[in-house]
Specification:
six-stranded parallel β-sheet; 11 strands; three-stranded antiparallel β-sheet; 350 residues; alpha/beta
């Protein structure tokens, strides 16, 4: 299908269907909608179950889309699906593999309606891997993410947000666009397990090539760079990320620390370096250190709460209908996203 690109964003003219629920799939297609794609959310008669979580939860993942109710278990629903597929560039679905096949949401089934349709299956472990539950937290536990997070003396820890779902959604959007650009239809697979293992890139490489089994580090410390972790200060915590000798020279001069001039020496004498840095940072607050180190080019930030972070970046808070939401992180020259409201269930049935 030839892409039509009228004004309205870099993805204007791209038509995407979504059969998704909760987070990963809807996040992927919302990112596309923010860039101008026309996204039609195909919902069962009762709607995406995320509508039951809260109105703001649903809005945060579904702004700017259309909503069409289809019962895909019926011949009528399948016929209507075929009509939508015939005029679309891609379909993204995140359901269990058995449901994807049962509802005919694969390229092999839909190519009869549109030879160039791109079908993206976003699953937990792959289309051929069965229906084992694959919620975000389960995948973080299964892929080693939880085991790497938290204090070494404490239990494994999960991040405070859905990192696996969000990461898989972004990856699925990339795969969808890549296949559209190829000009060929076909099946694309993205699964949460593979995405999270891929994101453990240098940790996995160290184990696979050097036999270095990753360990949890105190205060979230980096396995290679020193000092690069969270530090307590006179008031609050500071994230300090010294990745090369130039950063260390500038930081050490400001903090009154001598020696340890090379990355190799700092890594070899990690405990000594950390102790000196901890002692120096107690002389000021986290906010004070941030204001002192930023002009020097040293990567440092006071640990903020989400409300504090949003207050510090008011330009990222946008309105979509009745909701205040976080803007797209993708900025394209000449394109100002139109943040439409989330659709009412079945709002575009006709």
């Amino acid at each position: 299908m030839t892409l039509r690109r009228p004004a309205g964003g870099p993805l204007a003219g791209v038509r995407v269907l979504e059969v998704g629920h909760m987070l990963a799939g809807p996040y992927a297609t919302m990112m596309l909608a923010d860039l101008g794609a026309e996204v039609t959310k195909i919902e069962p008669p009762g709607g995406d179950i995320s509508r039951q979580v809260s109105a703001s939860y649903f809005a945060s993942l579904n702004r700017g889309k259309r909503s069409v109710r289809l019962d895909l278990t019926t011949p009528e629903g399948q016929e209507r699906l075929g009509g939508l597929v015939a005029d679309a560039h891609a379909l993204l679905v995140n359901l269990k593999p058995s449901a994807i096949r049962r509802l005919g949401l694969t390229y092999d089934r839909l190519r009869a309606w549109n030879e160039r349709i791109v079908c993206v299956a976003l699953t937990g472990f792959g289309l051929e891997a069965g229906d084992d539950p694959a919620f975000d937290y389960v995948v973080q536990a299964a892929t080693g993410v939880a085991a790497l997070t938290g204090d070494p003396a404490g239990p494994p820890t999960l991040p405070g947000y859905s990192s696996a779902d969000n990461s898989a959604g972004l990856t699925a959007a990339l795969g969808l666009l890549a296949q559209i650009i190829s000009g060929r239809g076909g099946q694309v697979e993205v699964c949460l397990r593979d995405v999270m293992l891929s994101q453990l890139n240098y940790r996995a490489a160290a184990y696979l090539n050097d036999g270095s089994e990753p360990q949890r580090m105190p205060n979230g410390a980096h396995s290679y760079y020193v000092p690069a972790q969270l530090f307590p200060t006179a008031d609050g915590h500071l994230a300090l990320f010294v990745t090369h000798d130039g950063f260390w020279k500038a930081f050490a001069a400001e903090a009154g620390i001598e020696g340890f001039l090379t990355m190799a020496e700092r890594a070899a004498r990690r405990d000594e370096v950390i102790a000196l840095v901890e002692r120096a940072l107690t002389g000021d607050s986290a906010a004070g250190w941030e204001s002192r180190l930023r002009p020097l080019g040293v990567p440092a930030a006071a640990v903020r709460t989400l409300p504090e972070a949003l207050a510090a970046a008011p330009e990222l808070v946008v309105r979509a209908g009745d909701f205040q939401l976080v803007a797209t992180p993708i900025r394209v020259a000449g394109h100002e996203p139109a943040y439409g409201p989330p659709p009412r269930l079945g709002e575009h049935d006709e």
